[in-house]
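Technical annex, item 7. During the second reporting period the consortium partners agreed on a shared format for inverse folding records so that results from different sites could be compared directly. Each record opens with the tokenized structure and is followed by the designed sequence. A conforming record, contributed by the partner at site C, is shown below for reference.
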């Protein structure tokens, strides 16, 4: 089965391809099929992921998979949440992972409560009108470090310290991170949902 991934993020594609390998599903980035980016006007991960999945399916006629993920910081009442990708731009920096990390560390410099969660919501649809989208949510809870540590991963991985491992996500080998990350948890659920409902 071919699934359109409603993203052009190479890191996301690589992670998800590894996790979906057992299904025999081929993930194709939407950009390779000429799919334009979807609007993401919603304030929840699930609504934005659904909008992206429907958009990709509508443009290709194929089943689609979309992910909306972000960082939810306790001290900021769950923000930046759905605005995570553009977090740095709120503080005059360009858009980008490294700038997001810099902005976050600056904003949290005098914050004692470092608890945060990386949240990933995966949505899959068979068609744009699918009345029963598959929805999987993964959540990895940790502490925001005071400086980046580690070289693996992307996004906030270098500042997301996971107490169970005593390391940041960026310090963990990719296979360990993939098994325990927010996206890894959501992908494992989604693989099972697709196996149970679609195959």
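Designed sequence (site C submission):
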């Amino acid at each position: 089965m071919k699934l359109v991934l409603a993203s052009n993020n190479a890191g996301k594609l690589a992670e998800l391809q590894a996790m979906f390998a057992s299904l025999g599903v081929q993930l194709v980035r939407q950009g390779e099929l000429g799919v334009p980016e979807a609007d993401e006007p919603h304030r929840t991960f699930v609504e934005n992921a659904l909008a992206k999945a429907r958009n990709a399916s509508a443009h290709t006629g194929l089943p689609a998979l979309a992910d909306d993920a972000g960082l939810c910081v306790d001290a900021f009442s769950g923000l930046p949440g759905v605005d995570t990708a553009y977090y740095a731009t709120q503080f005059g920096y360009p858009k980008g992972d490294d700038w997001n990390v810099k902005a976050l560390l600056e904003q949290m410099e005098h914050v004692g409560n470092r608890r945060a969660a990386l949240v990933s919501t995966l949505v899959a649809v068979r068609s744009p009108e699918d009345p029963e989208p598959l929805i999987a949510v993964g959540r990895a809870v940790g502490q925001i470090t005071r400086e980046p540590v580690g070289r693996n991963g992307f996004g906030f991985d270098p500042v997301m310290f996971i107490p169970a491992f005593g390391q940041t996500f960026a310090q963990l080998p990719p296979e360990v991170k993939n098994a325990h990350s927010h996206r890894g948890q959501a992908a494992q659920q989604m693989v099972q949902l697709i196996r149970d409902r679609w195959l």
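The first strand starts at residue 2 and ends at 5. The chain is about 30% helix and 25% strand. All partners now use this format for quarterly exchanges.
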